[in-house]
Structure prediction request, 531 residues.
Amino acid sequence: MSPALPEGVERREFDGRERLATRGPPVYGEPTEGGWRVWDAGRSKLGAMLELGMDADLSGGDAVLYLGAASGTTVSHVADFCGPTYAVEFAPRPVRDLVGVAEDRGNLFPLLKDARRPETYAHVVESGLDAVVQDVATRGQARVATRNARFLREGGRLLAAIKARSEDVTADPEDVFDAVTAELSEAYEILETERLEPFHDDHLGVVARVR
Amino acid sequence: MTTDAWFAGVAPGDVDAAAERIREGAADAPDDWPARAVEAGFAADEEEYYAALREATVEAARTAAAERERADDRQLVHAVRAMDDAERTANELAERLSEWAGTLYPDAGAGVPYARDLAEGEPDGPVEERVVSLARRVADLADERDDLRAFIERRAPEVAPNLSEMAGPVLAARLISLAGGLDALAKKPSGTVQVLGAEDALFAHLAGRAPSPKHGVIFTHEYVRGTRPEDRGSAARAFAGKLTIAARVDRYGGEFRPEIHEELRERMEAIRARADAAGSDRDVSRGDGEGDNGRGNGDTGRGDGDADHGECDADAGERR
Ligand SMILES: C[S@@+](CC[C@H](N)C(=O)[O-])C[C@H]1O[C@@H](n2cnc3c(N)ncnc32)[C@H](O)[C@@H]1O
Prediction:
């Protein structure tokens, strides 16, 4: 029995197929119907985590910090069902699109910042958040997560997609995942891990609780 | 501390000042900013706070992204031109140096590697002092070129991820430089991209003095120079076509798009399969770039024109 989806995320039928969906203005040409829009697990690691039945334990209205927002594909869905959603991305080009996504949503706050340096946005992002969602695909993914633990409330969660190739292109992904989860364990208690195949190759989904 | 807050000292409604604080401010630790803002009288309630926050973050992100983007491709253009200048100057001075050294030492060598050797030496007398000092400048210049290259290799994938993946960061930077910016490159038809850097050959062709060039600076890429001569025209055309798409994706979206790279790989395989089918001994000159030898450095932005031969192929021969 898979855990319940967060409030505001539903499995709905699109063209005869059950798909994850949230309610909000469309962003990337995804199929829509009656105000709902498809959340494509193939284009979103958090979507894949939910699709694979991982217990993200998000509730509608949660306050979230999203690291590695890129042009806003996934974070747009997060903002559809969560409360205040802070979206950090350090590459200027995708931020241009992210700004467009934020303009359509009252609770999405785009930040052109480096997730390795939380002190550069701690004057904007509030404390006591319910969740940090991370998809940075860059070297040092564990370090990014531990540094951003300061934003979480007690019992707050980390939902991370770890990309093996970002740490080491030659190493066996399993070895990379072991090393990354070991480092994560300093700041978080790991609750669940799951490979994100077939949606994303060589990625590990991690659900953890801040210590 | 509330004095760290992005809204500290900002008048409610002053979006520009708020955006500036969001871009430039910092704090060691977060705080319950919505509550602090209400206490400080910056906002009447949470709802008003979040509305102000959204307006300020959108403004800050928009202006910061636009500034950085403009700055970044221009920085890349300067860096690649400086790298070429450093390279050319180092080689010129190395030549001068080896001529000079030849009058002092019977076994004088040539090029930047020799200059590096000389730079290590202890000069004896005023003449050697000058020679060794000059050698050190050459070595320093060559180091500067290497540092510029490392900078380009780091930066180009941020400025143009798809173009860099496809062409390699240095050639990507060169194409941006030749076009005069990423924006300008994204607006060029692929036929122009194909011959960028071959302007001399192109003018000669237009003046009726030469056949039309099949490729410009993209010749330095393995996809073109590693293809047998009779197929290079098609290889250059296919490569330029995808580069044009990559430049547009980078300019207008910026997301990494694996499928365009896959399509190009397939197309190149098809072109090379012709050579295999013809049973020809395919020439695989590896374009692994500009070594420290100051030579084998085919991509100096010079027009290769119709010359489908020369140092690159010879180089590959030597390496086998
Ligand atoms: C795989 S993409 C994220 C895709 C996005 N999460 C989605 O599903 O829509 C990874 C992103 O992380 C960004 N990134 C990498 N390192 C970062 C850092 N240190 N700080 C902020 N963003 C970073 C990259 O620029 C890239 O846009």
User: Anything to note?
Assistant: The first helix of chain A runs from residue 45 to 51. The CA atoms of residues 164 and 177 of chain A lie 7 Å apart.
